[in-house]
Amino acid sequence: MIRLFICPECGWIRTVSRKSDVECFKCENVQMVPSRLEYAAYIRMSEQERRDYADSWMYIHNCSESSPL
Q: Is the pTM of this model over 0.85?
């Protein structure tokens, strides 16, 4: 099964098939987070839709860190 991981620092999306411990190569070994986006949906997206998804994920991630519970 192919899974998607996203970097919480830069938003880069990486596809992996077997690993569960995934590091971002762009951010010098930052631990990536599993994405809820399915691979089948990801490959149907255009490049712009993929960028928009990553931007939205980053926005939500940053908002959730700063909001008090």
A: no
